[in-house]
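From the shared-data thread, chain only:
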Amino acid sequence: MARDSSEHVRKVRRYFDARKAEYDAFYDSPSSFGRWFNRTFRRAVYLRRDRALTLARQYGCKTLLDVGCGSGRNTVFWARGGLECCHGVDISAEMIGQARSLADSATIGDRCTFELADFSETSDDTTFDMVVACGVFDYVVDAESFLRRMSQSATRIIYGSFPGWTLVRSPLRKARYALRGCPTHFYRRAEIERIFRAVGFGEPEIEPVPSGHLAWAVRN
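Structure, as tokens:
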């Protein structure tokens, strides 16, 4: 990995290590107001999770790799939704620790496993029916290379969420994250199409959601 890429990963890791509780609250806020706020203004977080499960069921996927799994909320959700084996990978040790605790408390630890690793640097040749990256391309240096790495681990579907560029919200978000030492990236639809076609896994499907797009491809 190039030096600038390594530094990028370190910045993202530091950011999420320090904000484990804040990130996890997107899915399970301790307050009723927080839950209402997230469901109303961060609806894409739930839409991308639900669409992934719909696709998994539609194409008969039984195994799933959750890249950038964070605190494991999505991984556990998908396992509860019927997938037989869900494996999460994340660069944050704090997040992985929380994910393992969550799976154990949900009594599905036998179907949910988690690994501390930089997915873009792994060489494991294990494959899964579906490889998912939700809330990950926001922080990826080279989206095409990352998606290609996902395709190498998938036998059926590759799927990701991509934050879109808007004139007001995107610059504000980029500045806010930059002040916290975390780089962010945004995508237009044409760029997402280009990335998927370059990887060549299958014909891309792109669905607009609040603040961005969901995109996936089924193997040809």
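The mean pLDDT is 85.
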